[in-house]
Write a structure and sequence with these properties.
The chain has helices spanning 3-11, 22-27, 80-85, 100-108, 127-132, 136-146, 157-170, 179-191, 236-249, 263-270, 288-302; strands spanning 34-42, 45-57, 60-64, 72-73, 91-97, 112-121, 151-154, 195-201, 207-215, 219-227, 254-256, 275-285. The mean pLDDT is 91. The chain starts with a helix and ends with a helix. It has eleven helices and twelve strands. The chain is of the alpha+beta class and 303 residues long. Strand 1 and strand 2 form a beta hairpin. Strands 1, 2, 3, 4, 5, 6, 7, 8, 9, 10, 11 and 12 form a twelve-stranded mixed β-sheet that branches.
Length: 303
Amino acid sequence: MNSKEAYLSYCQTHEVPLFMQPWWLDAVCVEGKEWRVLLSKENENIVGALPYLYRKKYGVKLGMPLQFTQLINAEYANDLPSLIDDERLTFFFQHISYDESMAELLKRNGFVVKNRFTYRITDLSDMDAVYARFSLNKKRQIEKAKKLDLRLDTLSATEMYDFHKQCLKKRGSEIFYSRTLFCALCEAAVAHGQGRVLAARSSQGDLLAAVFLVWDEQFCYYLVPTFDPDFAKTGASAWLTFEAIKFAQSHSQIFDFEGSMIGRIAKNYRQFGSEQYSYYKIEKCYNPLFGFLWKMYKRWQRK
């Protein structure tokens, strides 16, 4: 039995986090992509797992984060560095959560470890208390939106994709994922009872804002939010975010804003009373030439 078969068998009898569930891994690997998984075992029992996206082109073998997958929440054993090394990849990087001792272990084994941040509301039990922690600015936006008699709606995968694409185009940007990928993921999440697209409409039926939510019993993720810039001053985006948090209360314990290292986005999430939590980006290059080209690419991206 190979590692993927063993993992699929393991998942049939164990609860695993959303971003590690087999249906999620399959959904984000459409269009010819392949996922693999590293397994840590003790006495033939699986005690740790790390799924990743495997790409091979022109002889370059990469271990990458899965698209739409912020980070992998899992338990890891001390053999994680050697498990990654044994894959014989050209380059590996991933976003994962773990404790500082694992971070130090990875550093000692030649991995570059960098802090990243997400923003979470960790107690959804009392919505009055949650709202009380919102900034004055967010409360004003929500109260303004309430006066417009907005309507909460749901969208299909294709409707959400088209709306997001339209919103980005109005801001001079292009959508960064394919229709095939998004529809596969959204439809799979809805079918498994772990996803929904919520939307805010005006009393006239105009679509103002939308967000794709996914969840498991612990976390509800604010995965893909968007809003029409023509209606930015209505407060609809803030109103819909609060509706999403209220929706999450009946499904999960924690609301995760899918953090950002972009200052203005992080500031926006903090205004909803969220707290900052660390996770890590780990990477290791096994080919000096590729490592040089990767550094040049990152410098080019920052320009």
